[in-house]
Design the sequence.
C-alpha cells in the first residue's frame, strides 16, 4: 500500500544502495543476453499496462531477478485488491518512487513549481493470489536456441589460460576464490556475439585476480564494485574494437552511464576505469594476441 516517507527516510539513498548491492551478485539482470530465469528481465509494467520509467525499471528488474518473478506486472496492495487479488501473507513489497512537480502560489503572488518525490510500495503479480490470468507468467527456462560457438573466438579465449566452467546455471560471473569464469551454455544465448561479449566482460574481471593485475583486492565496498563493473564493460568494448570486431556500444553506453550514476556522478571515474580497462586488455592481448584467426583464414 502507499507509503509516506518519514523525515529520516531517504528513498534515493535506499535505491542507490540496492543497485550497488546487485554488483556483488555478478552481472546485473539488464545485461544478460541469454535465456532462462537468469536471462533478460521482463520490462516492468504497472497494473494498467503502462511501463515504468527511469530508476524504477532498474529497481524492479533487480527485485524480479533476485526473487525469480516471471510476471512483468507490479501493483500496490489496493490495486491488487481491486483486481480481485490478495497479496500472500509474509510477502515483502518493493520500493518505487514517483517524481513530480506541484504548483503553489508564492509570496509575491506568482505561481511556483516545486519538485517532489513520493515513495510507495508495490508487489509483483507473482506474490499475489487470485489475479486474472493475464497478470501471471511462468518462469522462463533456459532454451537451446541452437546458437553456435565461433571457432576463431573459442581458440582466442582458450589462449588466455583462464578456467571457464559451463553449466545450466543461467548466470555469468568471475569467481575470485575459485579463480574461474562461469558461463551459461552458448546455445542458450540469443546471438553468438552476445556470448563472446559476455565472456569478454568476465575475462576482464579475471585479469583483476590476485595472480594477475590484483585489481579486485580493492573491491572493499559497493562503490568499488561499481567501478570494477565499469572497468569490465569498457574493457570488453576495447577488446572487441582491438580485434576488429564491432562491440554493442549502444548497450554498453547505457550500462556504463548507469554505473557512473551509481558512483555519484564522479566525472573522473570513467577516466580511471578506462585506464584500468586498457591494462586488462593489454594483458589479454599479451596472452591471446590481437588477431582472431578463423578456420577459413588459417586454411587459406
Sequence:
Amino acid at each position: 500500500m502507499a507509503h509516506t516517507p518519514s523525515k529520516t527516510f531517504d528513498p534515493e539513498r535506499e535505491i542507490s544502495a540496492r543497485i550497488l548491492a546487485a554488483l556483488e551478485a555478478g552481472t546485473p539482470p539488464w545485461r544478460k543476453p541469454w535465456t532462462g530465469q537468469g536471462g533478460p528481465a521482463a520490462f516492468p509494467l504497472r497494473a494498467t499496462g503502462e511501463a515504468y520509467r527511469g530508476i524504477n525499471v532498474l529497481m524492479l528488474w533487480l527485485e524480479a531477478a533476485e526473487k525469480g518473478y516471471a510476471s512483468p506486472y507490479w501493483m500496490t496492495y489496493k490495486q491488487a485488491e481491486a483486481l480481485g487479488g490478495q497479496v500472500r501473507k509474509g510477502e515483502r513489497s518493493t520500493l518505487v518512487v514517483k517524481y513530480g512537480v506541484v504548483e503553489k502560489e508564492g509570496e509575491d503572488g506568482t505561481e511556483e513549481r516545486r519538485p517532489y518525490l513520493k515513495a510507495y510500495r508495490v508487489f509483483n503479480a507473482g506474490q499475489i493470489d487470485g489475479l486474472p490470468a493475464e497478470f501471471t507468467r511462468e518462469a522462463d527456462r533456459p532454451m537451446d536456441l541452437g546458437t553456435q560457438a565461433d571457432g576463431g573466438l573459442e581458440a582466442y579465449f582458450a589462449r588466455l589460460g583462464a578456467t571457464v566452467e559451463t553449466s545450466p546455471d543461467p548466470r555469468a560471473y568471475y569467481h575470485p576464490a575459485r579463480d574461474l569464469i562461469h558461463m551459461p551454455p552458448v546455445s542458450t544465448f540469443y546471438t553468438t556475439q552476445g556470448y563472446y561479449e559476455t565472456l569478454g566482460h568476465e575475462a576482464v574481471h579475471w585479469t583483476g585476480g590476485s595472480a594477475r593485475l590484483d585489481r579486485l583486492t580493492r573491491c572493499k565496498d559497493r562503490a568499488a564494485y561499481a567501478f570494477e563493473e565499469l572497468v569490465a564493460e569498457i574493457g570488453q568494448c576495447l577488446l572487441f574494437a582491438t580485434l576488429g570486431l564491432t562491440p554493442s556500444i549502444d548497450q554498453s553506453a547505457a550500462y556504463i552511464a548507469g554505473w557512473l550514476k551509481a558512483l555519484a556522478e564522479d566525472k573522473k571515474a570513467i577516466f580511471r576505469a578506462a585506464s584500468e580497462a586498457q591494462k586488462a586488455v593489454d594483458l589479454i592481448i599479451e596472452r591471446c594476441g590481437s588477431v582472431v584467426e578463423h578456420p577459413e583464414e588459417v586454411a587459406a
User: Anything to note?
Assistant: The beta strands are 45-46, 73-75, 86-87, 94-105, 111-124, 128-129, 163-166, 173-175, 180-183. The chain has nine helices and nine strands. Confidence is low (pLDDT under 50) at residues 1-7, 23-27, 295-300. The CA atoms of residues 57 and 134 lie 21 Å apart.
